[in-house]
Design a protein that fits this description.
This protein has about 600 residues and is an alpha+beta fold. The chain contains 14 helices and 32 strands. GO terms for molecular function: 4-amino-4-deoxychorismate synthase activity.
Length: about 600
């Protein structure tokens, strides 16, 4: 592989493949680009699986890199006596496809910008089942569970949608909504694949192999408190744990077929990972692959991933073939790459769309067990399609505004908050790289002199910008004049617990307030609770006791607010109303740039 900071190949060219996010273990904000293949290898019949993988082995032996996918229905070829060939024959793209490339090009997040051109959003979604039809299928699955046929079946359906613009512009839009995952783009000519899977199928380096089954889902909360409750619920929920453990056991068995005896282990069980639209329960299974295992034997042992089939795997797959309305195609298969040194990485192709012209298909589903609630399972399908929901563009950044006064003030606190927001929102974040750039800024530009406002903005793919503004003018000792915002903040929406660039309402009303001579304005939420200022947290003092609004009221946990709460004995968090503010002995506003300042509330309303 070679490093590059410029790309000459656009994603719209046939047989271009791009992997991003967690595929780049060395640089989660970067990409791997495969372009201009020397050949392409396609599987059109499951009967030809052994020869197909033999061709892939030959290209690897000649020093070529491979990038492509293995579709779900290709798995029928590993157990041909167990499945009908009918659904494989209905496939609109090859059952498996790989390009053979001279090398893979490493791109930084900034270096990949030239690949993208514009953005477009999907139109309205149409699921291929009504809720009643879905319920009938679930009832059928439960009959098989009751009869002892299976323990779990991963049942899925298809969403279909239209979109304007190019397929690559849709990929860019969806990338901004689901960053930091095992993302993949493949231009197959007439069709294009856009995958935003959060699930690693397997990564193999040397003889070491790791798979990370994902089973168990919870929505994001509308506040930091609610979000934490959803995470805790998912991590401790017995149903989700049982489903996850069932798949872990299945994958341990799969890996045991190709790994050295005694090497298969489970270093991580029932972890909860957070993504922009949901929480997921994840476990990890590792092992040491035997030296003489071929590609065909490797995939025969583990494909398809047990998290998208059910258990026992073969019987669950037979029921899937009987009950689902259309072939899955690449969805729930695997997309990834293989390098000449035999290192390889594949995702489980969930959260994946197949595009053709200006139409797309996107699969969604979940694991059905005996006590599954049909309504909840149907809603889970909708939750997993949330990435496609049309609406206001979600492209935004996370930022921190840091005081420099001879050195950075509260730098560790700012970077910790930035990294936590990045983790929650699925942004790539290389803190060491950010620190190095801030150190360079200190040494070469700021040089220990003066007061500056340093703004650090992080983008979803991990790129960032740093800007500097002079703060040499001493802050006024006069009280801060505060008016009232005539618009309530919604009490739901998890973005407000993070410092993001989605702050149009704050900026618009603050500009209006300043035109009328005010320095700040005070927002309440839609429950009538005091939340925060446009650029400050709120603190009141009555009878010598300090009170600040609690996070449940929907506000940013400011750096100075955290400092104040941790260093004062006579301070507490509580729900405050406007009446509490009016009756307080003292009103303060605070932020990390200006510290704690006296304030005066006026009656004027700005909206």
């Amino acid at each position: 592989m070679r490093d590059s900071f410029a790309a000459n190949t656009m994603l719209d060219e046939p047989f271009t493949v791009l992997f991003g996010g967690s595929f780049r273990k060395d640089d989660p904000g970067g990409y791997l680009l495969f372009s201009d293949p020397v050949d392409t290898i396609a599987l059109t019949s499951p009967d030809d699986l052994r020869s197909f993988f033999g061709k892939l082995e030959a290209f690897l032996a000649e020093g070529f890199s491979l990038a492509g996918y293995v579709g779900y229905e290709a798995g029928y070829g590993f157990e041909p006596e167990s499945f009908s060939s009918e659904s494989a024959a209905k496939a609109v793209v090859p059952l498996a496809w790989f390009g053979a490339y001279r090398s893979a090009e490493r791109l930084s997040g900034n270096g990949a910008e030239g690949l993208f051109s514009g953005q477009c959003r999907p139109g309205a979604l149409q699921f291929d089942m009504t809720q009643g039809e879905y319920a009938e299928k679930i009832d059928e699955i439960k009959k098989h569970i009751a009869a002892g046929d299976v323990y779990q079946v991963n049942f899925t359906g298809r969403y279909r949608f239209d979109f304007g613009g190019s397929a690559s512009s849709l990929f860019r839009y969806l990338s901004s909504r689901q960053p930091g995952v095992y993302s993949a783009w493949m231009n197959l000519g007439e069709h294009q694949l856009a995958s935003f899977s959060p699930e690693l199928f397997f990564r193999m380096e040397g003889n070491g192999i790791e798979t990370r089954p994902m089973k168990g889902t919870a929505p994001r909360g509308g506040s930091e408190h609610e979000d934490r409750l959803f995470r805790e619920w998912l991590g401790s929920n017995e149903k989700n744990r049982a489903e996850n453990l069932m798949i872990v056991d299945l994958l341990r068995n799969d890996l045991g077929r190709i790994c050295k005896p005694g090497s298969v282990n489970v270093p991580e069980l029932f972890s909860v990972e957070t993504y922009p639209t949901l929480h997921q329960m994840v476990s990890s299974v590792r092992g040491e692959v035997q030296d003489d295992i071929s590609l065909y034997e490797l995939f025969r042992a583990v494909f398809p991933c047990g998290s998208v089939t059910g258990a026992p795997k073969i019987r669950a797959m037979q029921l899937i073939q009987e009950l689902e309305r259309s072939p899955r195609g690449v969805y729930t298969g695997a997309a990834g790459y293989m390098l000449p040194d035999r290192s390889m990485c594949f995702n489980v192709a969930i959260r994946t769309a197949m595009l053709c012209g200006h139409t797309g298909e996107y699969g969604a589903g979940g694991g059905i067990v005996w006590d599954s609630n049909t309504g909840e399972e149907y809603n889970e399908c909708r939750l997993k399609a949330k990435i496609l929901k049309p609406g206001k563009a979600e492209n935004f950044g996370i930022f921190e505004t840091i005081l420099y006064n001879g050195s950075f003030v509260w730098l560790d606190e700012h970077l910790f908050r930035l990294s936590e927001s990045a983790r929650c929102l699925g942004f790539s974040c290389d803190l060491e790289r950010i620190r190095r750039e801030l150190e360079r800024l200190t040494d070469e530009e700021l040089r220990g002199r003066g007061r500056y406002k340093v703004r650090l903005e992080l983008h979803p793919e991990g790129t960032f910008q740093i800007t500097v503004d002079d703060l040499s003018e001493s802050p006024s000792s006069d009280p801060v004049s505060v008016c009232r915002a005539g618009v309530s903040l919604p009490s739901d929406g998890h973005l407000r617990m993070h410092k993001t660039t989605r702050r149009e309402l704050y900026d618009k009303l603050l500009r209006k307030a300043k035109k009328r001579g005010y320095d700040e304005l005070l927002f309440c939420n839609d429950r009538g609770e005091v939340a925060e200022g446009a650029i400050s947290n709120i603190i009141i003092c009555s009878d010598g006791h300090y009170v600040t609004p609690g996070l449940s009221s929907g506000l940013l946990n400011g750096i100075y607010r955290q400092y104040f709460l941790s260093t004062r004995m006579n301070v507490q968090e509580a729900i405050l109303t406007m009446h509490d503010i009016e009756q307080a002995d003292l009103l303060f506003v605070c932020n990390s740039l200006r510290g704690l300042r006296r304030a005066v509330l006026f009656d004027e309303v700005v909206s």
